[in-house]
Every structure is written in C-alpha cells, then in structure tokens.
C-alpha cells in the first residue's frame, strides 16, 4: 500500500520547503535505474541508465517543476511562464493544472516535437510560437516575468535546480555510493548543475564517500560550452538541446572543473546511433536529446578515455514517445497481410 510520494515528500529535509508549502505533485521521481548490458559490454564498465522518461510527463523536468509550481503557489502566483524546447512547457502545463494556475509557454516556432506540443495543448497552456530560437524565448520569458504578474519557472529559477538534484540522491540511495562517472546531455545546463549540487550535498553529509566526474555532452551544432562562445543559430535534430546560449553556462563549467569531468560534443549521427542502440539493444526508448549522453559515453570509450571497471550512470532525460519521428524515419514500412496465418507466418520468417 506504499507508493512513491514524489520528490518533495521523499526528500523534504533536503529541499527549501516548509510545513506551509502547498505540495503540487504528480509523484515524480523514483525513476528506474536500469543496468545497461550492451553498454557495459562495450565499455568494460558497469553502466546504468537513469530513465527519466518514466516521470509523469515523460521527462526529468517534473522534478524541478513540482518545486517551482509549489513555491509559486506558496507565493500566491496565479500564472506561470516558461521558455521551452518542449519538455519544460509540457511539465509546466501539467503541474499548473494540478495547482489551478494558468500556464503560458514560449516555444521556438517549428522546432519542438509534436508530442510535447500536444502535451502543452491538452493541459490547456497558453502557447506562443516565437519567431526565434530557445534563447530568444528565454529572453522574452524573463522580460515578461519581470514586468507582468507571472512567475518564471525556467531553470534560472533556483528552486528548479533544487528539485532536479534529487535524481543524484536517488542514484546514491540505490547504488550505495556515487558512481565514478555521471554522463548527461547538456542544453540550457540546468540539469548538470542540479546533479552536481545533489552529489556534492550527499558527499558533504557523508551519505556518499565521493562525487562522480561529471561528463556533459552537447549536440555538435549547438555546442556553445565546448566552443567557448555563444552559438547564434544553433542546429541539431535533438531539438530539446538546440540551445546556443545556456543560462547555467558558468555552473556547468564549475561542475566540469570541480568534478574533474568534461564537456564535449556529439554529432547528430552519433546521437541517432546511440538512440537506435538504446531502443534496439537495451529496450529503452528515449528521445534523441537523451541519447546524447550515451552517444558521448560511446565516443569517449572509442577514444580510449574510459578505463574499464568503472561504475557509470547515464541519464536518459526524456521519453521516446515525445518525438517518434526518428524512430519511424529510416525504418522499413511494415508489410500488410491478409487475415491468413500461413501468409503471416511466412512474412514473419516463422515458416
Ligand atoms: N534532455 C531533454 C530531453 C531536455 O528536454 C533537455 C532540456 C535537456 C536534455 C537538457 O537539459 O537544459 O538542463 O541542460 N530541455 C529544456 C526544455 C531546455 O525547454 O524542455 P538542460
């Protein structure tokens, strides 16, 4: 009769909430940590996948959103706003419904996956498609939140980071200590910031004996942190991380440097290869951006940068159903058969 209560109740003493904070939750968090057999074989390591697509709206954003919406409600906000490449808007829209609040979302015109757009629509968000990229959307969202009665729930809101750090807690709670390396995709750089904060807090309180090296991967066409300069016109098929000027840039550099980690880039081709491997060989369907972590791990292994025997966790950030175009594209069309067992058996290669 016990179910996971959501990250605020499960980690209440580590989050900036009080007894009077209204907890707005869809029971996010408590996501599976799945041993990755093929990736372990390929790297000679013990690789696990933190499957964040199992969250209520299908991405890790729910961890931050339960905090952001709960705090906004506590402060009396009636409306929230965010800029998004899709997942933040889906999450904000759902949690705003739970809170009885209005949500407004700004998305880059034509550059968000259909599933995510559908989520924002069905949850009743007020959506504006902005004639610009994510970075433009964020500038606009910040400006609106400063000048109008609407609370900003992007990860520049520090309580978002507080919520998202709980993923690191869950990993240590499950494994008994921090892994050697933690790998994740980097877009606006909030999540790498959050994991690093979570790992550091557990190490400081001696719940973990160490912190992992943080390895972040950007898409090659949208890799400002790797290049060391803003990318004016970011491009990648991984629309979730199509970001040219990450808000948490400096925190990502701190996570990299303080952890002895790295931030590198992976091409769209490498992302799609990892995307297909995860689905076809690990049984885990993620969206393209999520596969950037695994693509990065495979790239590093091929470059001889992964010593065998290590324990590695890759966060896969979002559910594959959000953006199934790449699953269908390039796959053979299913053949049509009559209602006839012999024909079906033959076509299935059973006969
Ligand atoms: N993976 C997915 C599936 C995402 O949606 C995002 C970010 C990231 C990775 C990168 O995380 O920004 O914390 O470095 N999506 C944001 C959004 C930008 O609007 O949904 P990050």
From TrEMBL:
<dbReference type="InterPro" id="IPR004450">
    <property type="entry name" value="Thr_synthase-like"/>
</dbReference>
<protein>
    <recommendedName>
        <fullName>Threonine synthase</fullName>
        <ecNumber>4.2.3.1</ecNumber>
    </recommendedName>
</protein>
<keyword id="KW-0791">Threonine biosynthesis</keyword>
<feature type="domain" description="Tryptophan synthase beta chain-like PALP">
    <location>
        <begin position="24"/>
        <end position="318"/>
    </location>
</feature>
<dbReference type="InterPro" id="IPR036052">
    <property type="entry name" value="TrpB-like_PALP_sf"/>
</dbReference>
<comment type="pathway">
    <text>Amino-acid biosynthesis; L-threonine biosynthesis; L-threonine from L-aspartate: step 5/5.</text>
</comment>
<comment type="function">
    <text>Catalyzes the gamma-elimination of phosphate from L-phosphohomoserine and the beta-addition of water to produce L-threonine.</text>
</comment>
<dbReference type="InterPro" id="IPR001926">
    <property type="entry name" value="TrpB-like_PALP"/>
</dbReference>
<keyword id="KW-0663">Pyridoxal phosphate</keyword>
<dbReference type="InterPro" id="IPR026260">
    <property type="entry name" value="Thr_Synthase_bac/arc"/>
</dbReference>
<comment type="similarity">
    <text>Belongs to the threonine synthase family.</text>
</comment>
<keyword id="KW-0028">Amino-acid biosynthesis</keyword>
<dbReference type="InterPro" id="IPR050147">
    <property type="entry name" value="Ser/Thr_Dehydratase"/>
</dbReference>
<dbReference type="InterPro" id="IPR000634">
    <property type="entry name" value="Ser/Thr_deHydtase_PyrdxlP-BS"/>
</dbReference>
<keyword id="KW-0456">Lyase</keyword>
<dbReference type="Pfam" id="PF00291">
    <property type="entry name" value="PALP"/>
</dbReference>
């Amino acid at each position: 009769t016990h179910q996971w209560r959501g990250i605020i109740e499960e980690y209440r003493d580590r989050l900036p909430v009080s007894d009077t904070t209204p907890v707005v939750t869809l029971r996010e968090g408590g996501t599976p940590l799945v041993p990755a057999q093929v990736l372990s074989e390929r790297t000679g390591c013990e690789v696990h996948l933190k499957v964040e697509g199992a969250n209520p709206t299908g991405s890790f954003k729910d961890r931050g959103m339960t905090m952001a919406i709960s705090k906004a409600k506590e402060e009396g906000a009636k409306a929230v706003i965010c800029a998004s490449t899709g997942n933040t808007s889906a999450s904000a829209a759902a949690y705003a419904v739970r809170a009885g609040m209005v949500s407004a979302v700004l998305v880059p015109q034509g550059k968000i996956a259909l599933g995510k757009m559908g989520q924002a629509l069905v949850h009743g968000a007020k959506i504006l498609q902005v004639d610009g990229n994510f970075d433009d959307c964020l500038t606009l969202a910040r400006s609106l939140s400063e000048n109008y009665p609407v609370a900003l729930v992007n990860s520049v809101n520090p309580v978002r980071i507080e919520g998202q750090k709980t993923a690191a807690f869950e990993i240590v709670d499950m494994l008994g200590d921090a892994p050697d390396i933690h790998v994740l995709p980097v877009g606006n750089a909030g999540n790498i910031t959050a994991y690093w904060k979570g790992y550091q807090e557990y190490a400081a309180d001696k719940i973990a004996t160490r912190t992992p090296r943080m390895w972040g991967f950007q898409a090659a066409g949208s890799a400002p942190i790797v290049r060391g300069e803003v990318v004016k016109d970011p491009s990648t098929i991984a629309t979730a991380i199509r970001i040219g000027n990450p808000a948490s840039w400096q925190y990502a550099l701190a996570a990299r440097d303080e952890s002895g980690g790295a931030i590198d880039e992976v091409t769209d081709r490498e992302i799609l290869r990892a995307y297909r491997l995860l689905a076809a060989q690990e049984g885990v369907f993620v969206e393209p951006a999520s596969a950037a972590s695994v693509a990065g791990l495979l790239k590093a292994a091929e470059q001889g940068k992964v010593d065998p025997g290590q324990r590695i966790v890759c966060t896969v950030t979002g559910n594959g159903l959000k953006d199934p175009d790449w699953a269908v594209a390039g796959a053979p069309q299913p053949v049509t058969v009559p209602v006839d067992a012999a024909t079906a058996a033959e076509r299935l290669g059973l006969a």
